[in-house]
Amino acid sequence: MMNKLIELKNLTKNFDDQQVLRGINLDIYEKEFLTLLGPSGCGKTTTLRIIAGFEEPSDGEVLFNGIEISKLPPYKREVNTVFQKYALFPHLNVQENIAYSLMAKRYRQSGLIGKAATLWRSISGSLTAEDKKAVHEVLDMVELKNYALRLPSQLSGGQQQRAALARALVTKPKILLFDEPLGALDAKLRLKMREEIRHIQRQAGITALYVTHDQEEALAVSDRLALMDKGQIVQIGQPEELYSKPANKFAAEFIGFGNILAATVNEDKTVSLEGGLILQNVNVPPTLAKGKIYAAIRPEKLKLSTNTINGSPNCFTAKVTSRMFMGNFIKYTVLCQSQIFTVNIANAP
Q: pTM value?
């Protein structure tokens, strides 16, 4: 069992008369990759900023290894943040940008003489042997060793992102916070960078809290997901759990079920959809033994056939109204007894 690194207890946050967090309870464990997922305005970035120390909660507690830290300033927390805008110093090369993080930490922790020595090393551009070793280690980790002397303007977007990640890693924080870190990258580079971030997090053995509104990105990188809506966590679990067993209609819609229909659970455990379709052999949770529900059916779970199958359960006559080639699958829209379904069929090679 992993140890709890951070505990959020009944966390609330108000901006003027608007409540943006409504009683957040969340545990973050050592070395896990936890993602806060949700639409814009749901409170995920505010939650991250409270953990980082950039905001104070209106109420509730933030515990770090069991110690309350909500009043501590950011520089006294063992936390670093990787932002969407990389915030690299344009006049410093990659190595100097990374080293700055070490010097800033040492300056804050030193006495008067230590501050003077750190300031002199910063001005003169000299590093201690210990700092040089730390910088070279993270440069190797993010594969930027050959770019150490380049300015940020001489780097690609992905390389700038890795430089920002190295700067955050070099001080060896207990947790790394990612605030929509891939938002400034194009689609192809986003795919590559999310894999690299996950690889580096595992290699460093560090805890990560990741904020995104991108469902596919969250499912791909996370050990656990916390889905947020209107300042609350509506479901938390492993990606497979949220994907296959959404807790409510919002979770199903946001994760992307595709077919979400009003339905009724009948006495005989069949499920009636609007329009007269009756589904048999449905695994209805005991808590939904009878009454009104929403039925969520993934597009890839439906099949199309030109063969007539009389009497088979859950087989219905339908009309294909559109077909769209999507690369690795073909997306069909079908009309079945006044209901419209989306059906995704894998595109055979």
A: 0.85
Cα 110 to Cα 69, 117, 119: the distances in Å are 21, 9, 11
Average pLDDT, the chain: 87
What are all long-range contacts of 43-47, with beta carbons under 8 Å and residues at least 24 apart? 43/13, 43/228, 43/230, 43/231, 43/232, 44/211, 44/213, 44/228, 45/179, 45/180, 45/211, 46/13, 46/20, 46/21, 47/8, 47/11, 47/21, 47/211, 47/228
Rounded CA-CA distance 161/176 in Å is: 14
CA dihedral 143, 145, 147, 150 (to 10 degrees): 130
How many C-alpha atoms does 84 have within 13 Å on its Cβ side? 11
Q: Residue 40: how many CB atoms within 10 A of its CB?
A: 7
How many DSSP H helices and E strands does the chain contain? 9, 17
Structure confidence at residue 85 as a pLDDT band (50, 70, 90): confident
pLDDT tens, 306-337?
887 666 788 888 999 999 999 889 999 999 98
**How far, in Å, are 150, 241, 265, 343 from residue 255 at the CA level?**
40, 11, 23, 16
Q: How far apart are the first and last CA of the chain?
A: 43
Q: Which residue type is seen at 303?
A: K
pLDDT, mean of residues 263-279? 85
7 with 63: CB under 8 angstroms?
yes
Q: What is the per-residue pLDDT across 150-206, written as a single tens digit (0 to 9) for each?
A: 999 999 888 998 999 999 999 899 999 999 888 767 778 888 888 889 999 999 999
Given CA atoms 78, 82, 83, 85 in this order, what sign does their dihedral have? Answer: positive
329-336 vs 339-346, strand pairing mode: antiparallel
How many CA atoms, within 13 angstroms, populate the side-chain half-sphere of residue 10? 2
